[in-house]
Amino acid sequence: MRSAKVLFRGEQAGILVQHDTGTFEFQYHKEWVEDRSKPAISLTLPKTTEVYRSSYLFPFFYNMLPEGSNKQVVCHLNRIDRDDYFGLLLTVAKSDTIGAVTIIKIEKQ
Which InterPro entries does the entry mention (predicted)? Predict the structure, then answer.
């Protein structure tokens, strides 16, 4: 299992998890949902206390990934499998994003 903090403008909005089975979960923090001034991170992931589950990386996060030759270079330099979308997301979305969302890996303790 791998997990990451999902930050919106530097504030932790929720947690993204990839299970060993390859399935994914995203859940907002309760405090984020309850604070009316905090927006949803995406129109496709409205604020809720329920857990979002998917058999593939959620499109919102997938669309944060590089494509084409940029993807090839990032994968080669970081020794990431081309099909490891979560690993790629953890590598590029911690600092190199266009929008307000960044992704920070949670290290196992």
Answer: HipA_N1
Decide if 69 contacts 41 (C-beta within 8 A). no
Taking CA atoms, 32 is separated from 3, 11, 15, 59, 98, in Å, by 18, 9, 11, 21, 22
- Specify the length of the chain in residues: 109
Q: Which two tokens stand for residue 59?
A: 């499109």
In one letter, which amino acid is 37? S
The predicted-structure confidence for 22-63, as pLDDT tens digits, reads as follows 999 999 999 999 999 999 999 999 999 999 999 999 999 999
Could you tell me the pTM of the whole model? 0.90
Residue 26: which domain range? 2-105
Question: Cα torsion at 60, 56, 74, 72 (round to 10°)?
Answer: -110
